[in-house]
Amino acid sequence: MTRLIVAAGGGGDTIAASMLHTALYSEQDQAVILTYAWDRLLIDPLPGPRRPADFTGLERLTPAVWTVPAQARPIPPAGSTLPRLAAELPHTFALLDPYQGAEGLTHQLEDVVSHLEPESIDLLDVGGDILARGDEPTLRSPLADALALAACCQVNAPIRLLVAGTGLDGELPPADVDDMLGPVVHTFTASDTEAISSVLEWHPSEATGVLAATARGARGTCEIRDAGLPVPLTDDSPTVHEVDLDDAVSRNQLARAIMATEHLDEAEAYSREICGYSEIDYERNKALWLKDQTPATLNPSAIWPQLDQFEAEARARGVTHTTFRRITEALSLSGSQRDDLRRLLINSRPEQYDAPLWRIPIAAE
Q1: What is the pTM of this model?
Q2: Region for residue 298 given its phi and psi (left: phi exceeds 0; alpha: psi -120 to 50; beta: otherwise)
Q3: Helix or strand or coil: residue 22?
Q4: Which of 45, 149, 214, 247 has the fewest CB atoms within 10 Å of its CB?
Q5: Cis before residue 356, ω within 30 degrees of 0?
Q6: What are the tens digits of pLDDT across the range 303-335?
Q7: Distance between CA 61 and CA 3 in Å, rounded?
Q8: What do you get for the CA distance between the two ends of the chain, in Å?
């Protein structure tokens, strides 16, 4: 059997889709994961998502959709995590191209559904921002999810919307969407994370990393992103809820507005109008800002007092865990230094590594 999973936001949702397949379906079932090639600037210095023309080595799945095999490569300066995911995970990764707006995405989905005739179709979002109205002050990245939602609700096939790890992306407090959540489909456990554990060692996704950590038992408060957003790690964090697709569309103003869009810039314009911004504008501005920055030197002897101060301040805020992205930016290092910093910290203080998070020790430690 073929199972089709649409990773609503791309990025870490793609890894969570792999974990979902492991948890819900038979090993004999084949998973095709439809996802954007839309990575953070530390992976891809070009703002916005990539399209098929940005890669070499893609393979055609249907007339409208290409797969990203392990041998595919983004054309520099573009970057993408998808080829490495294809090399390490046993799934087919197919590329969603949002540059033709929600209409184009709908056509791509219909093309894949017609070709594969999948046994099931799941639309998966980690964090729950796919349920945003659009005016929430904490919302940061509504466009990718809204495009996926707008396309899925127009496909002539049954699609199940699943939300995992409500609130773990720091965008919407769980209380804001609790009334939308339907039955629990699954609660992730440590065994569900085994197949993706090696991926989480290098992939920069915070939300899916936090989701996996809670599946392994991490509890407390995790600080994420450059803004240090506090995310509660609770017994509800590793759960996957079904949500009524029509209810989600009724709530998501941006998804409703962009259904007939034929270009990504049209969808962006609606995002600016409804949400007050476009996440691609944020990436454009940050990319320009990064060009003018001189990152601090990763000096091991200087790191420890800086880290100790950061941990003391985090502890005072009630923080029990954080991500390596958060530490990297808090120490004024560049995203390209994240992996080196991560190795240094884990090798020196392995007792604080609560994979894939960094545990803030209590004062007595």
Answers
A1: 0.96
A2: beta
A3: helix
A4: 247
A5: yes
A6: 999 999 999 999 999 999 999 999 999 998 888
A7: 15
A8: 51
